[in-house]
Amino acid sequence: MPAVFEAESLSIQFTCDQRYVGGFIGSITIKQKWLSLLIEKWVDGIHTLAQVASCCLQTVYTGITMSLQAEWQYLCHVIPGFTKDLALVEAAICSNFLPALFSGSTSITIDNDFNHLLGHSVKMGGIRIHDPTQVINCLFEASKSAPSIFVENLVANSDFSVEAHSSQVCQSAVTMWHNHETEEGAFLKDLSLYNSGLWNHINTAKESGAWLMAMLQCLQLSAKEFQDTLRLCYSKQPLNLDDTYDSCCQQFLFEHAMLCKKGSLVMQWHKAGKQEWIAFAKLAYGKSLVGDKPKNFFGCNM
């Protein structure tokens, strides 16, 4: 190939079997070896995160959604056609990471529908852990569509319009996310037909999922708090509950614990809410004018 450029008197630097802009240029064999090393590193990373999930669940979740997942998603943008390789990553997520996220040492089965649901965006009832084998094609198509005007200008040696290029890039991103939301909406519609209980929980999770997107410096949850909240979002009881409720001796279910008038959980929430309102009121009116009990007056002041 360099000889061809020299014959045409073209000063072009030719490179083969090298990384380029996060991707790879070269023979299929060398590229496959390079991809295999990356896949192995990502699978090991998923296993490591699953092993430490019991002590720092929120940190582990943030690590895979904000960092590790972004590595293979970027590669999906620049290299097409390695779905079979990413199947190893998806298998590690389903068999190791998601069970650790939801159940720790307790066994749990992640079926295809539940796995698909978890891959949704937070506002569509998911937790943003996408199946890489399902998103690779749309990510690459978006990246190929985004610079199309720029490529056309280069081929035609015509004037380049920054405004038109920027508009095309934005349009490609919008189209990709619109297609995502359309597909997720269709899946949720089908889900509501045969699992109404889970559908009700997902509707609630869609409106209260900001805690999943909060940065660690803004909201820190213990592993138990994170796991219990996550399980409740998907109609699963928190782990390690007592068999019976101590006040009424009925089966200990979360819904019953929140509504039982004999138990102490409702009273605890009332007291917590009361103290919160007292703190706000003191900031507004001053400490001397706010209290949690009425003042008793005696004698002539009564």
What is the terminal-to-terminal distance? 103 Å
The global form is elongated
Strand content: under 5%
β-strand number:
2
Domain count: the total is 2
Give the proportion of residues in helices. 55-70%
The assigned structural class equals mainly alpha
| Biggest β-sheet: strands ordered side by side in the sheet | 1-2
The major sheet is characterized as: 2 strands, antiparallel
Overview of this structure, please?
With 302 residues, the protein is mainly α. Helix content is 63%, strand content 2%. It has 2 domains: 2-213, no CATH class; 250-302, no CATH class. It has a two-stranded antiparallel ribbon with strand order 1-2. Helix 2 (28-51) packs parallel to helix 4 (83-103), helix 3 (57-78) crosses helix 6 and helix 6 runs antiparallel to helix 8 (162-194). The longest helix is centred in the middle third of the chain and has 33 residues, at 162-194. Residues 297-302 have low confidence and may be disordered.
